[in-house]
Specification:
Blueprint lengths: L1 H12 L7 H12 L7 H15 L7 E4 L15 E4 H21 L1 H14 L11
Parallel strand pairs: 1-2
Helix pairs in contact: 1-2, 1-5, 2-3, 4-5
Length: about 130
């Protein structure tokens, strides 16, 4: 989910996000996720960077859990913010839908998506021929 946010933020940003990855990522969260629920900087620094670069949660800021919606975004006794997988996924899906709804009505966002698509494309199936 952390990488999905990164992917969507790149389309939202449009132009190359090189040198602006954190800004694109955090602004996407602040724009499309439920207001005031998530610490965008914390998600970027601890979750996204930790998972992408070290395959861990940097600084142990977050604890990941499933099937416990009652503790989503609550602080554990050891100071970790708990992310319940289903709740985080649901907020990501809502953010994705909000983004694409806006793309349909905003020429600027549509241009951003198009620019990113032309530059980087989408993940697609391809065939591989073997001798």
């Amino acid at each position: 989910m952390a990488c999905s946010i990164d992917y969507l933020a790149g389309f939202w940003w449009g132009q190359s996000s090189q040198g602006h990855v954190k800004e694109a990522y955090t602004r996407f969260i602040d724009t499309y996720f439920p207001p005031g629920r998530y610490d965008a900087d914390g998600l970027y620094d601890s979750l996204r960077n930790g998972l992408v670069h070290m395959f861990t949660i940097k600084g142990k800021k977050y604890g990941l859990i499933h099937n416990n919606p009652h503790v989503h975004l609550k602080m554990s006794k050891d100071g970790q913010i708990i992310l319940n997988a289903a709740d985080f996924r649901d907020d990501l899906v809502r953010a994705t839908n909000r983004f694409f709804d806006e793309v349909e009505t905003s020429p600027t966002l549509l241009d951003n998506v198009h620019e990113r698509y032309v530059r980087d494309g989408f993940l697609a199936l391809g065939s591989v021929d073997f001798p």
